[in-house]
Amino acid sequence: MKNLFSAFIVVLFFFLANAASAQGRYGKDSVDCVKNLSFYLDYAKQQQWKDAHPFWEQAFKLCPPTASQNLYIHGRQIMKHLIEHDNNPALQQGRIDTIMMLYDIQMGSYNVNKGNMLSQKAYDMLTYRPENLDAVYEAFQQAVMAGRENTAPPTMVIALQKAVELYQAEKLSADKLLEIYTTMNGFANLQVKANPDDEQVARMRQDLESILGTSGAASCDKLITMLEPTFNPQDKDLVIRTVQLLNMNDCSDNNLYYKAVEAYHALEPSPGSAYGLGNMYLAKGDVDKAVQYFKEAIAHPDAVKEDKVKYYLKLASAYLKESNTTQAIANIRQALVITPNDGKCFMLLGNCWAAQRCGDDEIAKKAVFWVAVDFFNKAKSADPSLTEEANKFINNCSQHFPLQEDIFFHDLTIGDIYTVNCNGLTEQTRVRARK
Asked: Pick from 140, 136, 133, 98: which is nearest to 115 by CA?
């Protein structure tokens, strides 16, 4: 204690020696200001925050803001210590208010990095008043707008998360949320440009997109309005992010999505991207483009056999949409070369034969349904999971079998082997009558 008192005398002498020429810095109560500053600082240096508190409190009351910036830095540490170790409910809210006030006074009195300080204030608001969503949201928004492209990635992410929470609490409009995202995304892009190898910065931009994408606030029209003006098909990173953001919101039926997917495929072609484009255009009804991309997927050197089965079947489905059953069946046969007992191949063959239209007489016209049923039976035999679906097709096709009298009229007997020739395709089947 003697050493502490001696140190105080030395510091006090220093302060008093300068007080006469610095009355403005320490205010009209400069002696008491300096004395309390000195006492609390001695305890603060030893991190004895509880003992420092009464002297800090007097210094805070007596000293003007110009006395010492540490008054505000240490004041926050003292308040946090008391909050943690002196859990008096009657005092806790006042201590939190004091922490926030000390940030404001320090920023108003000293040349500090306001972005960083507002970020610290926002985190303290989140720590001590997490239930006050409006205040937390506002604190993080202020931090981002002050820090702009220099805002720390975690601060940016939390700021958007809180905006989404406010939107989901129906306290923020979808338009305002999109405006906030657009601003933050602009800052994030500047950070990525300045720090292209920084993984945390890259992840921040992905997180921002994911948060918006899952927020439920972005309608397709609003997303397109936001994304289209800056879309660049040569910017691979932007192309990928555009596709991902549109996919998150089920916005795949629009020209921007088509352009983005095609741009991605052009920049980095793969069997999977070609197959995806084929599916996209097939759903859109553009069969010619679908066929083009399915063929590209099949021909790609990286296409593996297992995936080629899927590609051949989708190509067959595209042809079947145009009633080109000959080409459809030819591609299904290619798939069967790879997987000879594939139930899905047999199902599609059944549909192709059911769609065939040929023959000059009643038997020839309806014989295609015998072949179709044969393939549906093979499908459920090869893959029992297809049984229910196959049975529906069998029941439907059976209603198109010829009548028994028509079979007798054409000098045929139920159970006879019958060869079907249709559109250059040949299959053997057995004669059956409608029941």
From this structure: 140
**Which sequence spans correspond to the domains of the chain?**
1-112, 358-435
Hey, what are 159's tokens? 């700021």
Judge contact between 52 and 44, C-beta under 8 A.
yes
What is the per-residue DSSP string for 6-72?
HHHHHHHHHHHHHHTT-HHHH-TTHHHHHHHHHHHHHHHHTT-HHHHHHHHHHHHHHS-GGG-THHH
Please write the tens of the pLDDT for every residue from 216-242.
887 888 888 888 888 999 988 888 888
DSSP letter string over 363-431?
Answer: HHHHHHHHHHHHHHHHHHHH-GGGHHHHHHHHHHHHTTSPPHHHHHHTT--TT-EEEEEETTEEEEEE-
How many angstroms separate the Cα of 288 from the Cα of each of 266, 300, 320, 371? Answer: 18, 18, 12, 28
pTM to 2 decimal places: 0.60
d(CA 241, CA 210): 10
SS3 readout for 126-142: HHHCCCCHHHHHHHHHH
**CA pair distance 426, 424, nearest whole angstrom:** 7
**Tens of pLDDT along 254-281?**
889 889 989 989 998 989 889 989 988 9
